[in-house]
């Protein structure tokens, strides 16, 4: 199982989001602003300390994962802003598990490395075979490594690959595989263009973003007012329910007193009748208010439905 860790944030595990059309990116990765080469070196050293190494029969300090370092560059001048991305990728070497003597966790890591390199090699092979007449689909989605390297393999990029080989005859087979890998990659045709935004384009884009946020703010204000009104209506409905309960109690008391009605004096009968009419009038008022509240509630719900989704 592939795992992605942030080497600048205590090896925090991360996730990849995106799609083939808009590209893939690592969510919540740590970004550090740098202004010079001297700012970059300490970060590389910090990341190197977080990398996973292990000793094998072939290498005393074998890297157990691939490493990607991404540098976003912005150049500001009178013509606008030029944006570019520099990605340095250190691919862990493929291993013959039997020869390396990897066991346990190292064995699992070696299998994952070999699998990701196999999928990368397959993507390079397909991308290298693309021509003007044939355009086979490159399956970048099968591996986290190929997702992150998608733009470098036939996209808007300039790519340089350094293949490390050994002069020893013992490693002749591995050297041949590395050279074949590099030869296939050399055949890929990238389509690099300058990513430059004019000042006018940036101003228009900024105004558009501002307008979208202002529209969203107005929607949020309206939704807040509606929710506030809903809360007020709910409070009034609760108060009406409480009044209903009190009236029911009074009706019950009144019903119990009717048994003694014949024994009451005329004046007492008149007072009891007035009290009964007062209770009924209050009950009608409460019912009328309840219906009005329900009508307002329905109107607010219809207004809420007319608003667009919250995400812009």
Tally of discrete structural domains: 2
Task: Detail the poorly predicted runs.
Answer: none
Percent of residues in beta strands: 5-15%
What is the element string, with H for helices and E for strands? Answer: EEEHEEEEHHHHEHH
CATH superfamily of the largest domain: Kinesin motor domain
Biggest sheet details? 3 strands, antiparallel
The CATH C-level name of the largest domain is Alpha Beta
CATH topology of the largest domain: Kinesin
| Tertiary shape | elongated
Radius of gyration: 36 Å
Number of helices: 7
**Strand line-up across the major sheet:** 1-2-3
CATH architecture of the largest domain: 3-Layer(aba) Sandwich
Average per-residue pLDDT, rounded, comes to 78
The end-to-end distance, rounded to whole angstroms, is 34 Å
Keywords: ATP-binding, Coiled coil, Microtubule, Motor protein, Nucleotide-binding, Transport
Family: Belongs to the TRAFAC class myosin-kinesin ATPase superfamily. Kinesin family.
Pfam families: Kinesin (PF00225)
Organism: Paramoeba aestuarina
List keywords for this structure.
52% helix, Kinesin, 2 domains, 7 helices, alpha+beta, single chain, 312 residues
Characterization of the model:
The protein is of the alpha+beta class and 312 residues long. It folds into two domains: 4-193, Kinesin (3-Layer(aba) Sandwich), CATH 3.40.850; 202-306. It is built from seven helices and eight strands; from the N terminus they run E-E-E-H-E-E-E-E-H-H-H-H-E-H-H. The chain has helices at residues 37-50, 97-100, 105-128, 144-148, 172-186, 199-258, 266-306; strands at 4-6, 12-19, 23-27, 53-54, 62-63, 67-77, 80-90, 195-198. The strands form three sheets. The protein has a three-stranded antiparallel β-sheet with strand order 1-2-3. A hairpin with a 2-residue loop joins strand 6 and strand 7. Helix 3 crosses helix 5 (172-186) and helix 6 packs antiparallel against helix 7 (266-306). The two termini are 34 Å apart. The model has no long low-confidence stretch (mean pLDDT 78).
């Amino acid at each position: 199982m592939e795992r992605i860790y942030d080497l600048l944030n205590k090896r925090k595990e991360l996730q990849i989001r995106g799609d083939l059309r808009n590209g893939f990116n690592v969510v919540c990765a740590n970004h550090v602003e740098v202004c010079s080469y001297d700012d970059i070196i300490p970060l590389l050293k910090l990341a190197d300390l977080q990398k996973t190494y292990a000793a094998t029969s072939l290498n005393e300090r074998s890297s157990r994962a691939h490493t990607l370092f991404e540098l976003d560059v912005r150049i500001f001048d009178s013509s606008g802003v030029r944006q570019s991305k520099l990605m340095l990728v250190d691919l862990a070497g493929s291993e013959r598990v039997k020869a390396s003597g990897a066991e346990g966790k190292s064995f699992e890591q070696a299998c994952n490395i070999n699998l990701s390199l196999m999928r990368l090699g397959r993507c390079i092979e397909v991308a290298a075979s693309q021509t003007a007449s044939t355009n086979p689909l490159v399956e970048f989605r099968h591996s986290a490594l190929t997702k992150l390297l998608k733009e470098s393999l036939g996209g808007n990029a300039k790519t340089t690959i350094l293949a490390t080989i050994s002069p020893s005859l013992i490693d002749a087979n591995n050297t041949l595989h590395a050279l074949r890998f590099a030869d296939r990659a050399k055949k890929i045709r990238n389509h690099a263009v300058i990513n430059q935004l004019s000042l006018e384009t940036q101003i228009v884009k900024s105004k558009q973003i501002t307008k979208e946020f202002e529209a969203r703010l107005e929607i949020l204000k309206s939704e807040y007012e509606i929710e506030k009104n809903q809360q007020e209506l709910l409070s009034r409905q609760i108060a009406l329910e409480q009044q209903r309960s009190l009236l029911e109690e009074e009706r019950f008391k009144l019903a119990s007193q009717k048994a003694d009605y014949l024994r009451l004096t005329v004046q007492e009968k008149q007072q009891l009748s007035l009290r009964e009419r007062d209770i009924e009038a209050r009950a009608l008022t409460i019912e009328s208010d309840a219906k009005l509240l329900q009508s307002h509630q329905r109107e607010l719900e219809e207004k809420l439905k007319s608003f667009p989704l919250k995400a812009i």
